[in-house]
Amino acid sequence: MNEVNYSKLSQKDILRVIVLSNWSLLLILSLIALFLHNKTGAGLFIGALIITLNFHFSYKNLKKSFTPSNAKKISFGVVFSKHYLRFLITCFSIFIIVASRTINPIGLLIGLSIIVLSLFIATIYSIIMGDKIKINLNGAN
What pairs with residue 134 in β-bridges? Predict the structure, then answer.
């Protein structure tokens, strides 16, 4: 008899990897920024901080909105408006920071890109740790 057992990662496991790698990358970029002592280091730190906080607040907002106790209380429009309000605040903050010319925009862009690296790390983790297939073949079939 053929037996196939699938072991998959849960969404919470993948989210935990994304959050952990995001905060870890923020810490690493903060240390790099301390050693650079220039506009590029400041851009790295500020970009990483903006995107990490944005992801954190987005997670908290969505988690609160879609819990079973709040599902009927909160409408789609409220969740959507909070998302776009946070987006506009982020855009305005980035505009003010770049317009003030206190940081290097390339460093800011690299700092803002840590979420992409966190998602890449989570993808590699899920490929390596998840979706493992155990096959036991007992018999001729």
Answer: 5
Distance of alpha carbon 115 from alpha carbon 75, whole angstroms: 28
Cβ–Cβ < 8 Å for 102, 46: no
Range list of H helices, 66-104? 76-99
Q: Are 110 and 44 in contact (CB under 8 A)?
A: yes
CA distance 118 to 124: 10
Residue 114 scores a pLDDT above 80: yes
CA distance 19 to 41: 22
pTM of the predicted structure, to 2 decimals: 0.75
> For the chain, what is the radius of gyration of the CA atoms?
21
